[in-house]
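Teaching assistant here, posting this on the class forum so everyone can see the example we discussed in section. The complex has two components, and the goal was to see what a joint structure prediction looks like when all of them are supplied at once.
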Amino acid sequence: KNEVEQSPQNLTAQEGEFITINCSYSVGISALHWLQQHPGGGIVSLFMLSSGKKKHGRLIATINIQEKHSSLHITASHPRDSAVYICASFHTGGGADGLTFGKGTHLIIQP
Amino acid sequence: NAGVTQTPKFQVLKTGQSMTLQCAQDMNHEYMSWYRQDPGMGLRLIHYSVGAGITDQGEVPNGYNVSRSTTEDFPLRLLSAAPSQTSVYFCASRAGGLADTQYFGPGTRLTVL
C-alpha cells in the first residue's frame, strides 16, 4: 500500500522567503500531483509530473523517481501564497481511483 | 465552462435524515469521484465512477450511495446521516487518462447534529 508523507505539516515564513515543501511516497508511481487549497476551501491542481521538473510562475515542482520524493518550491513568497498544499501520488494499485493523498502542508506567509 | 459544480455549499442535517449532494461537470470527463476531507487527514475516497452506468466503492463507502446515469452528473446520497459524516465533501473529475489532472468542485460543508 502506498503511503504519502508531507513535511513540514505547518510552515510560517516571511514575505519574500524561499519556501520548500516535501513529499515522499513508498511505492513506484505513475505521476505525482501538487494541489493548492485556499482558506475558502476550493482545491486547484498546480502540477502533475512524472519526471524532472516543472515551473509555473514562482512555483517549481521537482520529482526524483529513484528516491520516491518530490518537492514544491515557492520563490519570492507572498501572503497570497498562504494555503494548504497537498501532494497526491498516482499509481494503478493505489486507492480505488489510483490516488493517494498526503495530509497537506499548511503554509502561512506573513507580510 | 463551469467546470465542476456542487450544491449545496453548506448543509445542516439531523441524525437519521437523508439527503443528496449534487455534482455536475461540463468537461465530458469519464472519471468522477467523491472525497471527504476531515481535519488532520488526507482526502479520502468515498465512491468513484469510470463512466456512465459504472460506479465502485472507495476507501470509506459505508453510509453513502452513488449513481451515474449521465456523463455529467454524479450525485452522492447519504442514506441516514450520522454525526460521523460531518465533513467537507469534494467532487472531482478527470478525463480518464491514468494520471490526468483532477478538477475539483468547490466543496460542500456538511454538519450532522
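For the discussion questions: The longest strand of chain B covers residues 44-51. Residues 94 and 102 of chain B are 5 Å apart (CA to CA). Think about how each of these relates to the inputs above.
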